[in-house]
TrEMBL record, chains A, B, C, D:
The protein's name: Low specificity L-threonine aldolase
Superkingdom of origin organism: Bacteria
Protein family membership: Belongs to the threonine aldolase family.
UniProt-recorded Gene Ontology molecular function terms: lyase activity
UniProt keyword annotations, A-Z: Pyridoxal phosphate
SUPFAM superfamilies linked: PLP-dependent transferases
Boundaries of every Aromatic amino acid beta-eliminating lyase/threonine aldolase domain copy: 3-292
Pfam families, A to Z: Beta_elim_lyase
Classification via PANTHER family: L-THREONINE ALDOLASE-RELATED, LOW SPECIFICITY L-THREONINE ALDOLASE
Single GO biological process annotation from the record: amino acid metabolic process
Subunit structure: Homotetramer.
The protein's required cofactors: pyridoxal 5'-phosphate
Length: 346, 346, 346, 346
């Protein structure tokens, strides 16, 4: 009964099988192999973006930070939500990969930036001239760190703010699958058609061992990206083993099935929390539930063996009601969810 | 009638004279000269810190950013007020000199951090473990960016928070002279006796052409500092010309006279603003006045030729009342202040 | 018949099986799982270093560059052979991870630095004072980029030079297994007993998909290393999948068997080259052969389908004799070697 | 009798007078003042480059490193002579300002790169693909670190190599005045007309206190340069005091007079060394003399009080003949040269 994160589980059997299937024989290293080529092609197809440049890395932090470094100079300002993963959870990777850029955080309910608030901060940044650095990049996360979803209209509105200022828009898609599955739109709709310039298309939280695709929809934006990837140690010599993980998830639509599974379970948990007298801290739109629950429900859940985090951290221990975060994964067992629901309801 | 900043005026005649006086003959470069040695000694005397390591640079941004780089690793968190110069006005220099540290801002009235608020944010940073980076440095500015003064007790309280966490305390003293003059204490009281580990002792805003001293009270903290200074291009070959500027200000106490002049003029402006129906946005304790004034007073001041900035920026144009910032300098003419007072009062 | 590199082949079946075996269930991420713990323990056992700190990353460039960043400041000088992988083949990763350190190269036959030559360059670096930066790290590769082996005595002599100057010694062990297998010594003999402070223990070239261990023999040397790893995107959320690869290779001694296979095949190729009228450019001591061969032998090899690189690069095309590099891998088929030998001999 | 360096002397009286002359009144800071504007204009005139972007910094290391950072990415390769100041004497500043670029050194007699040797190394760098980083910048020094002069034809030949590869050419002109004075050409001839894209026009070694101009002949090359300068702490608030130093040297041609003085004295020393049985290690073409002299001449010079460095460092102590470096400055007294000549000749 592990609801701590969607990275606590392992890899989908199809991913493991794909690793074995591409294991035979000798191929040239560093990405010059047919598996990598095919995986890149499949991602372009899924995104309906025949010109896009696709590259694979093993971690979400690498993907995001490399994109930050690609777009923002060391004197750049990168605008993101105050709870953005790049701000709170990557140990300063964007700052390191850019050589010193500043993350400018934007508040906003449910993990989402509002275009007006963003524009206002961008204006202030620009008004500071040399003093505050140059506006460099806008970054959003979808699904957000609060498990909510930016709608296509909301993405487009932020893209407009970015593009009017001549800035690119990055989407941290560590849970892109969950967002697409939740929105019921196409991957293209949720990315380049809405104005996204660079997408980090996550695999790890959705059944890969450790694989993410970085996608630049305009190939000109990818100039020199391979040097950045290499210099940061993120080019694998046996690159096919990264690529094939994404291939296994994307061919045949497995990625959306897995994301839908996680989303559905989270919806069920949300209902149970409300039924148990709890409250949701944000709408449950993908695979995460942020809620407060009565201390008794918390005690019953823990007694039943459920593992999850208090929110925002352990300092919430002892609060009444208890703020918690539950995350469901691509393979969270239905039985675990049922058991947690039973415990919550008492 | 220039009240835009305390860097709009030139250098004190004693500074210029000192440049000429040390010009003759050949000496070894890069700081191995007797003038530099003497200037370092005088600063140690003024600070009553015989063990301190003293180094000179030409700009306040260099001084602050070098100290940040000295203490905070690239994965470090540097805590400062949300209006700190290192956060708002140095184009990301601390991030660059550290290689990617994150400035974590702390809100607080009148430009001052409260120890409790600081401690709370430091706790959260530490609680994040690897995710958010490692707590690395606490930085305060005195006089603050709002022209207020941290009292010795307030500094000590922040130093306690820092030291209990094993972190050093940096003081951005671009207007250290104004702070010491305002507090009527010794330079030692306002620095190491209150718990400051590294002081950027400003000269430029107080009558130098461009000179600042970086002081590490514990010589162990200065290890390798000269490499950092050299690698960033801040070691002058004709180093004596930096050092002698500080020498001219510090020998004989000129630095405190000049700072007192600026402080006194600001106090007069504050009184005039209140008399003219304006309001102070922060207590006027050194050489800056943040206030709102009636539009008519603003119009009269502008008509009289007064130069100053709206606050926080030009977007304040047209507000009623008008938020403004006035800064007095070491040599702001009394007549200019009198003229501005007359214009404000109408 | 691929002799281009030892990273052209895939993973050993035991590695793939181990991935599957550890796939079930949910564990805490980022290394806080029992598989990672066990893999770290096994490496400590193999190295007879119960105090060592062991961490896993996916690429050799990451491993090397992280160690460089751990030891050398941004104003540091890192001494290595002029053909060192960190100098020629990592796109400036050491420079990036240190924030600007300088690699000072040392010439030397067969890919090996001589202690005297190293000491002489270190002396010159120190003599330059601030100008040239501070001596920071010594790095050697074993097996070397030329397929040769530093003997235990040679390592110790270099370690002495390093330690007398107060500097640590890093060993790039991308082919550490090949070196240990060739020397017939213990892993401890070839590392800490000979004076190595930090070892990059390679798995990828020896049958892993992509896994390397970074080992600090003195735990004090590992301070903050996890922050560096995280900030560069090299901490895997599903960390067990890295760790288990090394575990599969090390438990039961598979790593030495595989390395011995590669070494033995290379020795056979060396004999064939000599028999075919070629010459060796360096002693063949591990799994790489640098040689010149008659153009006819080259033509026959190519006609037979052998894939390998000219040396040092394609500009050697058309030379007589033809300089080439042949690399054997953990699973290079005996038949391929036999076929190449036949082709070379004509 | 100081021949250690051309930075051991102070500033020309005209420079000091100019500082005083621009001291009165209040002007806007950070370069938005009329003195800076005029100094920029005068440099454009002297260089016959009406479109050029001109910026001032206080040290040569800052100037060079900022240009490196402007042109070379962190994965870049910067080609320079093995004795280039940026390689040997700036503590890794180019590496720091670029965030990790690699300096690739090129050997060559008398401090000068040969175009063929340069092209060959550039080819090898490009051939390495991702492995070695991307070719980014070519840098030459004129006058060179050996006191020699690249002729206009030699500069043009190197510029051709650079431009054919699509790379810019930087000239470290710490002693640009000495080079122009020696060549008897125009400043334009020696810079943009010969293919130089960015010039660091030195003032410090030629009579300034500490002032250098960075010149980008194509304004597009200067994009964002002010951010870089600011973020590294090299924008002075009282910027006029930097600018006016260059103005004092350039208006009226003082810069060439001073350089000619230094050059002439060096020529005299060279003659004396030959007459005293010494040998020149490089042609004496500007204000530095590299030579070997008999031990007796060395002893007499030292006894007479002459200060100079052994070459390349103190390890030359005791050699016979004695390798030395003598540098003359803009104001080296004729009497000092005469005295040294007398001592050398015995």
């Amino acid at each position: 009964m592990n609801f701590a994160s969607d990275n606590t589980y392992g890899a989908h059997p199809a991913v493991l099988a794909a690793l074995s299937d591409c294991n035979d024989g000798a191929v040239m290293g560093y990405g010059a192999d047919p598996v990598t080529e095919r995986a890149e092609a499949v991602i372009r197809e899924v995104l309906e973006a025949p010109q896009a440049v696709v590259r694979f890395v093993a971690t979400g932090t690498a993907a995001n930070a490399l994109v930050c470094g690609q777009y923002a100079p060391r004197y750049g300002r990168i605008y993101c939500h105050q709870d953005a993963h790049i701000e709170t959870s990557e140990c300063g990777a964007p700052e390191f990969f850019t050589g010193g850029a500043k993350l400018v955080t934007v508040p906003g309910g449910s993990g989402k930036m509002q275009p007006g608030e963003l524009a206002s901060r961008m204006w202030r940044g620009a008004a500071g001239g040399m003093n505050g650095g140059r506006n460099g990049l806008i970054s959003i996360t979808n699904a957000t760190e609060w498990g909510t979803i930016y709608s296509l209209q909301e993405i487009a509105a932020i893209a407009d703010v970015a593009h009017e200022a001549g800035l690119p828009l990055h989407m941290d898609g560590a849970r892109f699958a969950n967002a697409v599955a939740a929105a019921g739109c196409s991957a293209a709709d949720m990315s380049w058609r809405a104005g996204v310039d660079a997408l980090c298309f996550g695999g790890t939280k959705n059944g890969a061992m450790g694989a993410e695709a970085v996608v630049f929809f305009d190939p000109a934006h990818a100039e020199d990206f391979d040097y950045r990837r290499k210099q940061s140690g993120h080019v694998f010599s046996k690159q096919r083993f990264l690529a094939v993980q994404m291939l296994a998830l994307l061919e045949g639509g497995l990625w959306l099935e897995l994301a839908k599974h996680a989303n559905d379970l989270a919806a069920g948990l949300a209902d149970a929390i409300l039924a148990a007298g709890g409250n949701l801290l944000a709408p449950v739109q993908s695979n995460a539930v942020f809620a407060t629950i009565p201390p008794e429900a918390h005690a019953r859940a823990k007694a039943a063996g459920a593992i999850y985090y208090l929110w925002p951290d352990k300092s919430a221990e002892g609060q009444d009601p208890v703020p918690i975060r539950l995350v469901t994964a691509w393979n969270t067992p239905d039985a675990d969810v049922a058991a947690l629901i039973a415990a919550l309801k008492g």
